[in-house]
Design a protein that fits this description.
single chain; mainly beta; Rieske Iron-sulfur Protein; 4% helix
């Protein structure tokens, strides 16, 4: 699996998200409490951009009138129809057995580590179709 630089760590502070396209795929990366998560920026329900969704948590009601709020910032709500996804696993909260958002592993790497590579150069075929007269000044 190829690695792609998303942003400098300072450019993705706590609570931030960044969208990008990698190999034609729309991706969104979230910084939640210092942990980074990557998702395909497309809801599996009907294709909305998950990057425009709201991050929230889970409300637990152990008894009437008493609610605990946990996992704050770890559930992403689709902006179109409100389907919720666990950003750690992509699992749908609405239909956990059949639906999940595509996740991608994200890590923080040192600049020194990135300089070492390995890198692959993308090449393209080139053809010359005409001749040109060129002057050098």
């Amino acid at each position: 699996m190829a690695r792609h630089v998303v942003a400098a760590l300072r450019d993705l502070p706590l609570g931030a998200r960044k969208t990008l396209t990698v190999n034609g795929r729309p991706i969104v990366v979230f910084n939640v409490h210092g942990a980074f998560f990557g998702l395909l920026d497309r809801c599996p329900h009907q294709g909305a951009n998950l990057s425009r969704g709201i991050l929230g948590g889970v409300a637990h009601g152990d008894e009437p009138g008493k609610i605990r709020y946990t996992r704050e910032g770890e559930f992403l709500r689709c902006p179109w129809h409100g389907w919720e996804f666990d950003i750690r696993t992509g699992q749908s909260w609405c239909d956990p057995d059949r639906v999940r958002a595509r996740t991608y592993p994200v890590e923080v790497a040192s600049g020194e580590q990135l300089v070492k590579g390995p890198y692959l150069a993308e090449t393209f075929s080139v053809t010359v179709e005409d001749d040109y007269v060129v002057i050098e000044i």
